[in-house]
Every structure is written in C-alpha cells, then in structure tokens.
Design a protein that fits this description.
183 residues, alpha+beta, Glutaredoxin, 5 helices, Thioredoxin-like_sf, Thioredoxin family protein
Length: 183
C-alpha cells in the first residue's frame, strides 16, 4: 500500500501538466477579470440593467467572451473604470455565451437589446438610458472616462491622464499621470 501511495505522490510532482494562461490567444483560461485585470469583483454584475435604469444610474454594458484575446486585452480597461467610478456607475459585464442563441430583445431594459453580435462590445448608457458610447474592440480609456464624467456630471481632473500599463505578463493596471506646470 505504501508503494502505491509513494507512486501517486511521485506522479503528482513529475506530471507534465502545467497551468498556462495566454493573454494574446483565443484560448479559455478562466474568467478574464481575476486573471488579466486582477479584479474578480466585476463578475457577476452587482446590478441588472433593469435595476440600473430604474435607479437612474450611468451604466457600462461590456459584452465579452473569456476565450477572446480582444476581451482579455479590454478587461484591464473595464477594471480601471470600476476602480475610478465604482460608487457612481454600474458595470454590467456579461459573457455572450447565453446571448448567442437568443433573438435580440425589443426591451431596452434587456442587455441583448444592445448587443450587436460582436465582441468585445462596450456601451455606456447615461442615467436616462440614452446610449452615449457604443464600440467594438479596444476602446480608449481616456475617451470612456470622459464620457462617464459627462454622463455623471462629475468632473475629472484635467491635469491627470490615465493609461493601461502591464505590470507582469498577465495583468495590467490603470496608471495615472499628473501633468506638472512649471512657472
């Protein structure tokens, strides 16, 4: 019996299987927010679109797939927006797996009313439910930040700029740069 136990333990340590995650491939590595953005709190969404519209909150709809390299690249941007605007907006990140076989809704309170079938897709709705931004692929963080600022009525610091910077091969973060004025 001890020989079998030692054999199983040895098998575990010499097993060739490794856990790999690749940001630039269309491979499934798990949920993209904890892996590539370091923020697992985005999924599942804290509110539904219906609740967000009812409560007159600015909303970001982010349609993605976990096995899409473009979605993986966009995850740190969405996470950065969550970091800055968490108290003032709703981020509703949804995988499109469930939506792919459904017909488009005719109800603006349903996410598939807005989804155009492409990923990643980012949509910003103001507090009245009006679409202020609708884009596919990589979105510019500064542009999204500005639209959210206008939609919430909260001014952003014009002396700061933000960019997405990788701090290792898997994760990125939002970096703030303050412009200094020399007199």
């Amino acid at each position: 019996m001890k020989i079998i136990q030692w054999f199983l333990i040895a098998l575990i340590f010499i097993s060739p299987y490794k856990a790999n995650a690749y940001r630039d491939t269309n491979s499934y590595d798990g949920n993209i927010f904890p892996i590539y953005a370091g923020n697992g709190a985005i999924v599942p969404p804290k509110a539904t679109l219906k609740d967000s519209l009812k409560n007159k909150r600015v909303s970001i709809l982010f349609f993605y797939l976990d096995d899409s390299s473009d979605s993986k690249a966009m995850a740190p941007v969405i996470s950065g927006l969550d970091l800055i605007w968490r108290e003032n907006i709703e981020i509703i990140a949804l995988t499109t797996d469930e939506l792919q076989n459904e017909e488009a809704s005719d109800q603006p309170t349903e996410p598939n009313y807005y989804w155009n079938g492409l990923i990643p897709q980012t949509i910003i709705l103001d507090s009245n439910g009006q679409v202020k931004y609708d884009g596919n692929g990589m979105a510019d963080f500064g542009e999204l930040n500005k639209i959210i600022s206008e939609s919430t009525g909260i001014e952003i610091d014009n002396e700061s700029s933000f960019s997405v910077e990788a701090f290792n091969e898997y994760n990125s973060t939002i970096s703030e740069t303050k412009e200094t004025k020399n007199n």
